[in-house]
Amino acid sequence: MSQLLKGKAAADAIDAQTSAKVMAMLEQGVGPTLAIVRVGENSSDIAYENGAVKKAAKLGIQTEKYICQADIEEEDLIAVMKSINENERIHGVLLLQPLPGHIDAAKVRNALAPEKDLDCISDDSLGRFFTGREGYGPCTAESCIEILKYYGIPIAGKKAVVIGRSMVIGKPAALLLLKENATVTVCHTKTASEDLKELCKGADIIIAAAGKIGTVTADMAREGQTIIDVGINFSEEGKMTGDVDFDSVSRVLGESGAITPVPGGVGSVTTTLLMRHLAEAAEKACGNKR
Amino acid sequence: MSQLLKGKAAADAIDAQTSAKVMAMLEQGVGPTLAIVRVGENSSDIAYENGAVKKAAKLGIQTEKYICQADIEEEDLIAVMKSINENERIHGVLLLQPLPGHIDAAKVRNALAPEKDLDCISDDSLGRFFTGREGYGPCTAESCIEILKYYGIPIAGKKAVVIGRSMVIGKPAALLLLKENATVTVCHTKTASEDLKELCKGADIIIAAAGKIGTVTADMAREGQTIIDVGINFSEEGKMTGDVDFDSVSRVLGESGAITPVPGGVGSVTTTLLMRHLAEAAEKACGNKR
């Protein structure tokens, strides 16, 4: 069986750095603070929020919750975002998504100031990310790269295939791989299946971000590859599963190959990166005040 | 020999559409107007400027020249850009580049208002382009796609390789190919030469934008491919030449293949797209005034 690239080990290493940063700020009397904005009482939102609060507490980061009624007016939610922008005590924001259907989510996301946008949710932040300017990248896409780096998997000069071309995962992941000097191919729903198979087989690294069960099957893999599975899908039996046929693909990859589990892979690193971005945002805010 | 994808035919077809738009506006009393900003008396700048003025005149577009001394201060050049932003008579800008070394070109480019940025030269425009928002794409990257479309070369579902990952050509061209539903691979200086060869051989479309003579050689090509050569290089003898070994590669492509010449390929379309963007910008400006 192939090496299991667990997210937790990578997350712990990053958390240790973040914690040190936060401690240094606390000693200087600065309390890095994350605002969590939630609309309604969706249970999966609350579960994610609890995870974030727990992680923040562990790292010494304070959290402030902004819980809004499920029927909040769009303009009132935008006002919440703007009040957070102006609140000097708050260094960054976690907006729980998706938002209810009566709200134009893009308007709310775009109301967030770039310096507090920890997960690249506004168009402006995304534009800055794609053009290499200051700001924070999308946490999920960054998680893929952080896992590769943590486990010492070479990226430069390697052939990488990204399956999926979304603005929040596929495209940013491709850009980050390019930045690390990989040769990057982006495949998607319009890629012919024989091309997808051939390109995957030829790749050193595959990032599966199609959001579909069975996207990567054993016949598309070969020994020694590294596969990062970004998919979070649920089987008919309600079991959380990635985009990759884990068992059969893992066997093909062999001992020289490596693969992230779902759950326990990429998903375990995203909140860690959000907190790292928060610590960086707090550092910048202090620096700017001096 | 392969089919020659001359830029002029594609440019003529686009120019005809632009001309019709401009005529319609002129009939309504609106004179679409392009500002040309030149610093110094560089002969290649002047040659490009003359070409643009001639093309504009042919299409009924007015031009206003802003000729600055070669030693103009950065802030004064920025003031020129800002005055153009505020000038309602002007619908778009052609800034001749490169600017002299004492000027921070990024600051000047970023001073241009997005609605007058016809060639995606500001960071903001580029960010908008990469995130699919309103604005004008980089003309050279768009030219590659326009040539493919004009000659009826299918892109959707095809394998495309882009050689080069610059922010102004390689990356935007890759994005545009993705938008047209191609499966896109980006190769660059850190791509292993055997991978580059293999990927090029497997591709249906190659966009060569490395800016280096001899980037694509006959052993990297195969029968039936389409190659768009974006390179503008000069041989030791001073002859303008692309990134592709034209003669030998063209023979390999065969009658079912196609290739753009240099000069006479991509370069013949860029000013045409600048003028199309200008006409669109003028239309928007009129629409907004109504």
How would you summarize this macromolecular structure in one to three sentences?
Chain A is α/β, with parallel strands linked by helices. Chain A has helices spanning 7-27, 43-59, 74-86, 105-110, 123-130, 139-150, 170-179, 193-202, 246-253, 267-289, and strands at 3-4, 33-39, 62-68, 92-95, 159-163, 183-187, 205-208, 226-229, 233-234, 240-241, 258-259. The interface between A and B is medium-sized, with 33 and 34 residues.
Text of the CATH class of the largest domain in chain A: Alpha Beta
Q: Summarize the helix and strand pattern of chain A as letters.
A: EHEHEHEHHHEHEHEEEEHEH
Low-pLDDT residue spans of chain A: none
Largest interface between protein chains, with number of residues from each side:
A-B, 33 and 34 residues
Task: Characterise the protein shown here.
2 copies of one chain form a homodimer. Chain A has 10 helices and 11 strands. Chain A has 2 domains: 29-114, Leucine Dehydrogenase, chain A, domain 1 (Rossmann fold), CATH 3.40.50.10860; 139-266, Rossmann fold, CATH 3.40.50. In chain A, 48% of the residues are buried. Helix content of chain A is 44%, strand content 15%. The longest helix of chain A has 23 residues, at 267-289. Chain A has helices at residues 7-27, 43-59, 74-86, 105-110, 123-130, 139-150, 170-179, 193-202, 246-253, 267-289, and strands at 3-4, 33-39, 62-68, 92-95, 159-163, 183-187, 205-208, 226-229, 233-234, 240-241, 258-259. The first copy, chain A, is globular. In chain A, β5, α7 and β6 form a beta-alpha-beta unit. The termini of chain A are far apart. The first copy, chain A, is α/β, with parallel strands linked by helices and 290 residues long. A 6-stranded parallel β-sheet of chain A has the order 1-11-8-7-5-6, with helices on both faces. A 3-stranded parallel β-sheet of chain A has the order 3-2-4, with helices on both faces. β6 (183-187) of chain A pairs antiparallel with β6 (183-187) of chain B, so a sheet runs across the interface.
